Every structure is written in C-alpha cells, then in structure tokens.
C-alpha cells in the first residue's frame, strides 16, 4: 500500500517520534523496529477497510499504537 501526501506525513511523524525515543539503541535494531512499525501501520490500514485509506482510518490506527514514548531507550526495563 502506498500512502499519499498528508497520510504519508502522519505516518512519518509517528515514526520520527519513535526514532527520537530510541536514539540510544543500535542502528540496526532501531531500523528494524521502525520498519516493523511501518509495516504494522500499513497492514492495519489494509484490514481497516476496502478502498483508499482515509485520514480517519489512519488516525484510528495510530491511536491504537503504543505512544512513541513507550519505545524510549530503557522503557522496556521499567
């Protein structure tokens, strides 16, 4: 699934926020996490309904995700 314009920017903003929280992780682990999250978002959008993704469906998918802060380095130890 390919996202356009504002939808792509929303996904990227979420991924950027997660990336900022995981700055202390190794580059390979961080890249893998971001790729997994992006794949999960896109798959969730596909399951959310037929047709092109809408801002409302994307908002719902992002709301169901863990907040970027939960990926903070050391958060998994808490």
Q: What does it look like?
A:
It is a single chain. The chain has 78 residues and is mostly helical. The chain is built from 3 helices and no strands. The protein has helices spanning 5-21, 27-48, 55-64. Helix 2 crosses helix 3. The mean pLDDT is 90.
Overall structural class, as computed from helix and strand content, comes to mainly alpha
What is the percentage of strand-forming residues? under 5%
Terminal residue distance: 35 Å
Uncertain segments of ≥5 residues (pLDDT<50)? none
Radius of gyration: 13 Å
Note the overall shape: elongated
Overall pLDDT:
90
Main beta-sheet strand count, sense and barrel state: none
- Share of helix, binned: 55-70%
Number of helices: 3
Count of beta strands: 0
Write the H/E string, N to C.
HHH
Keywords:
3 helices; 63% helix; 78 residues; elongated; mainly alpha
Topology (elements, then pairings):
Layout: H1 5-21, H2 27-48, H3 55-64
Helix pairs in contact: 1-2, 2-3
How do you describe this structure in short?
The protein has 78 residues and is mostly helical. Helices cover 63% and strands 0% of the residues.
